[in-house]
Design a protein that fits this description.
Helix content: over 70%
Number of helices: 8
Order of helices and strands: HHHHHHHH
Structural class: mainly alpha
Number of strands: 0
Distance between the termini: 59 Å
Strand content: under 5%
């Protein structure tokens, strides 16, 4: 009986998935894999995936997530430009770390924005899970900027944000996207250690510094 119910639930979930969600998931996964390899093509995949998710999230009443996608579109262009035409023309953009005080400021700002926007959405709109929606949105804003600047800790931020996002997408019926973020949680761990190895290697090469 239980197996029959599970099979029925899985069939219903698969039927609810749109072809666009499948395409968006594939492109989003391509973005992360390419970003792990510091391949500039990651930003092309990010732009295309984001354009699709803008409409998907709006359709399921994740208003902040939908607005976030507009930001992602801009950051995909910015990220491509940063990686291709870094303002320090004397060297490539290096993987680097932020000091603890910078992270503490980020935590405080994201916390405050989550509380403010969560309250506003809850009071004035029909947005689903307004506080979680706001947290993942503002957390992703700063973390995306960290990726464009190759800040090592971006992977740790993504681990937390992606973990919370899994529940958010399951609640909204975006099952394939939830599965994608489960994969993300694993890949961001791999991505962190991959970038960390590069960071350590670059730090040992004379004459190479890290970009601020």
């Amino acid at each position: 009986m239980f197996e029959a119910e599970m099979g029925s639930a899985i069939t219903t979930a698969l039927a609810a998935m749109s072809g666009w969600e499948i395409v968006a998931v594939i492109l989003a996964l391509a973005y992360l894999l390419l970003a792990m390899r510091e391949n500039i093509a990651c930003w092309y995949a990010a732009f295309a995936s984001t354009a699709i998710y803008t409409l998907l999230f709006w359709d399921v009443s994740l208003l902040m997530e939908s607005a976030l996608q507009v930001f992602y579109l801009v950051m995909a262009v910015y990220g491509w430009w940063q990686w291709r035409h870094h303002r320090d023309t004397q060297r490539d953009l290096q993987i680097h770390r932020w000091p603890l005080r910078t992270h503490l400021v980020v935590f405080a700002v994201v916390g405050a924005l989550t509380a403010i926007f969560g309250y506003v959405l809850e009071a004035t709109t029909s947005a689903a899970l307004p506080y979680l929606d706001s947290f993942t949105t503002w957390g992703a804003v700063i973390t995306t900027f960290m990726v464009t600047r190759k800040v090592l800790e971006n992977w740790i931020y993504w681990f937390v944000i992606d973990g919370v996002s899994i529940y958010l997408y399951l609640d909204r019926g975006l099952y394939l996207t939830a599965v994608l973020f489960m994969v993300y949680v694993v890949l961001v761990v791999v991505g962190f250690f991959h970038w960390y190895a590069i960071y350590r290697k670059e730090a040992q090469i004379p004459g190479t510094g890290v970009a601020a």
